[in-house]
Structures are given as structure tokens and as C-alpha cells.
User: Which sequence fits this backbone?
């Protein structure tokens, strides 16, 4: 939940800042929003990945469950936390810029081009994540995911939401990064289609993917275990280093 909240705060907060710093210059606003999101996503995965595995996105969790890296029960438990976190992050972003805590977005984004863009954006995101897991390069996932999302801001007309939870969260901010509630179902449907296609493509490209490899989709399992051991040692030592 906390990781999803930070993600939404980064996306929406940087969008509000971009509007204020570069009013009327849409290209520059998008560049500022994309750069902050890419860098922020990189940092957030590093920060929370060892705790939750970096599961801030329902389609990533569902795909991971399909390949056996995550139980379906855990994937279902992540979903409300991801949505609640993104909603809370949107509210926090609004408040940080002295706006109303909740302002329903009026930004309509639903079109055939946006629908196709979200399918491709989600497909590409999952391919990046699972290709790295299958090839033993999951340590590069934080940088690769951040870079992909930053690029997809520009090569998709939808600016690459690629995440149902943040799509819901962005409805609650009538700002640069917002989305109208009437457009959200179209985006979420496209993201689910993209995820289904990604599963098919991943199985074709990497037929031997194992549950152990799938478990390392964003943060390698050994890093999560190391973090748990360090946390346990810190608690046992009363948080002292000496």
C-alpha cells in the first residue's frame, strides 16, 4: 500500500508541478512528468521491493500468480492495497500543492488510440519485467522498469498508465495526470487485455519460466530475504549498530 501511495504521489505530484512550472507548454510538462515518474519509480522499487517484491501494479501481480511466482491468494490480497495506496497517494499529491484533497478529474482520455496504447504499454511493461526474471537479470528491474515507463510516456498516446490501480487513483485529481471516471474503465480493460497478451507472448518466448524465476519479477528473492534478515537483526539489537 505504501509503495503504491508513493507511486501515485510521484506521478500526480510531478504532473501538478509541471503544470505550474511550465504553464501552456504541454511538451515540457510531459517531459517533466515523465522524468520524475521514471526516476521516482526506480527509487520506489528499490525502497519497497525488498518488503513486498515491488508489487505496486495489479497486472504484474496477476501475471506473477499465473506463472506461479505468487499465490493467487496473495495476488488477491495485494489488489485492494494497491488501489487504496494509489488513491491515498493521489489525495496526498493534491494536498501537497494546496489543492482540494479530492477533485474528480474531467480529463477524458478514452479513444481507440488510447485503448491500443494501453494494451501495448502494458504488454511491453510485463515483457520487460519477465524477460529480466527469466534471464537472471532481475537486479536490473528497477532501472529497466523506470526507463520503460519514462519512454512509454512519449511513444504511447495514453502516456502509459499500464496499471489499473493508478488509473483508479488518478481519477481523484483533476490535474495534468488525471483521468475522467468515464475513461478509466476503457483504460483498465485495455490493461487487462495487454496483460493477457503478455502472458501468451512470455510463454512463447520463455516456455521454461519457473515459479522461482517468476518470484523474482521485480526484486530478486534473495534480496527480499536479506532485507528480512537485516530487519530481524536490527530489531533483535534494539536498532543499534554497535
Assistant:
Amino acid at each position: 500500500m505504501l509503495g503504491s501511495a508513493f507511486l501515485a504521489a510521484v506521478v500526480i505530484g510531478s504532473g501538478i508541478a509541471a503544470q505550474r512550472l511550465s504553464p501552456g507548454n504541454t511538451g515540457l510538462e510531459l517531459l517533466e512528468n515523465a522524468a520524475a515518474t521514471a526516476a521516482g519509480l526506480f527509487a520506489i522499487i528499490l525502497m519497497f521491493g525488498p518488503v513486498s517484491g515491488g508489487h505496486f501494479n495489479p497486472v504484474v501481480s496477476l501475471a506473477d500468480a499465473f506463472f506461479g511466482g505468487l499465490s493467487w491468494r496473495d495476488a488477491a490480497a495485494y489488489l485492494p492495497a494497491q488501489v487504496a495506496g494509489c488513491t491515498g497517494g493521489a489525495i496526498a499529491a493534491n494536498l501537497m500543492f494546496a489543492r482540494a484533497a479530492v477533485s474528480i478529474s474531467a480529463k477524458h482520455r478514452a479513444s481507440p488510440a488510447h485503448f491500443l496504447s494501453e494494451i501495448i504499454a502494458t504488454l511491453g511493461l510485463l515483457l520487460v519485467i519477465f524477460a529480466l526474471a527469466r534471464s537472471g537479470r532481475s537486479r536490473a528491474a528497477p532501472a529497466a522498469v523506470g526507463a520503460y515507463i519514462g519512454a512509454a510516456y512519449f511513444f504511447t498516446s495514453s502516456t502509459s498508465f499500464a496499471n489499473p490501480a493508478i488509473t483508479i487513483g488518478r481519477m481523484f485529481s483533476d490535474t495534468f495526470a488525471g483521468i475522467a471516471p468515464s475513461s478509466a474503465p476503457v483504460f483498465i480493460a485495455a490493461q487487462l487485455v495487454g496483460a493477457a497478451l503478455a502472458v501468451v507472448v512470455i510463454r512463447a518466448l520463455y516456455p521454461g519460466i519457473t515459479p522461482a524465476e517468476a518470484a523474482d519479477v521485480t526484486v530478486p528473492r534473495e534480496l527480499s530475504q536479506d532485507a528480512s534478515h537485516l530487519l530481524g537483526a536490527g530489531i533483535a539489537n534494539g536498532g543499534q549498530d554497535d
Summary: DSSP finds ten helices and no strands in the chain.
